[in-house]
């Protein structure tokens, strides 16, 4: 028998004590490499944003002339005007007055809720940036990267890997070459990035896929600013993400939205992305936001001091956002990739 003094046993003694509660929350639900963390962003003052894309260079109007020849005038310039509407996302929560009073000395109740609301908002936007589709998903959505890339079907900016093999490095090379403004990152799910890791670090192509030729000269390893190893293809960093998920084969190519996996064979997609600031005539991908009260404020925070029929206040977080792609040559996609060995 354990002697604890005065109390019959340790169980009785514990009834008069309270565990120490450490303030805050330790994150456990993690998704790596949200595109939201990398996109250049700029604030808009309107509900929609318009910009013009060049249709064609006027090189065909440049003529040769003899000495004394009469010169002709020409006019052929036209533009492809794009308009992107900002879409509204929100989350709101009740702030119960009783809970706030009881736990106010342990955690800042409102601050923790706001932090969790912001995390949820950014996570949701990271998903929407990939899978939203205004054509097949409704007017509340904007066009995410899958929907934007699908507009280039039939070109090397939108390549079907075939659905029966691992990532083709020939297709990857073709996509990058079609991105004439350049490619800043190769954005891919961990499953496909792991196959590239295996090819470089462990087995080589010939051990991973039959009939594969060539060497590993285009796949290299470097280090980021923190000294961590980063895999590169042709000098372009490979960014692995949890936001690109297993997907349904043969979806998102002109007849429906790209769908996340629900049954059958799992397929994957890879994106090439060039970043830029469309507001400053840079052609790459960026994020536009607006309808906030202050310059540079990404969220609009709306407090409710007293909710009707509740002993509680409320908090609403709203964001108006949409991605902008200045030039279609700044985004490429390879889809219907099997989780199998890469091929040359």
Description:
The chain contains eight helices and 15 strands. With 344 residues, the protein is an alpha+beta fold. Strands 5, 6, 7, 8, 9, 10, 11 and 15 form an eight-stranded mixed sheet that branches. Strands 1, 4, 12, 13 and 14 form a five-stranded mixed sheet that branches. The longest helix has 23 residues, at 109-131. The protein is globular.
Please outline what is shown here.
This protein has helices at residues 10-14, 97-103, 109-131, 134-137, 145-150, 169-178, 190-201, 205-208; strands at residues 41-44, 48-54, 79-85, 87-96, 158-160, 185-189, 219-223, 229-233, 236-241, 247-248, 266-273, 285-290, 300-304, 312-325, 331-337. It has 344 residues and is of the alpha+beta class. The protein is globular.
Features:
344 residues; alpha+beta; eight-stranded mixed β-sheet; five-stranded mixed β-sheet; 15 strands; 27% strand
Low-confidence stretches: 206-214
| Number of discrete helical segments | 8
Helical content (DSSP H or I, runs of 4+)? 10-25%
The class by helix and strand makeup works out as alpha+beta
Rg value? 27 Å
What general outline do the C-alpha atoms trace?
globular
Distance between the termini: 71 Å
SSE pattern, N- to C-terminal: HEEEEHHHHEHEHHEEEEEEEEE
Mean pLDDT: 86
- Give the biggest beta sheet: 8 strands, mixed
Strand content: 25-35%
DSSP strand tally:
15
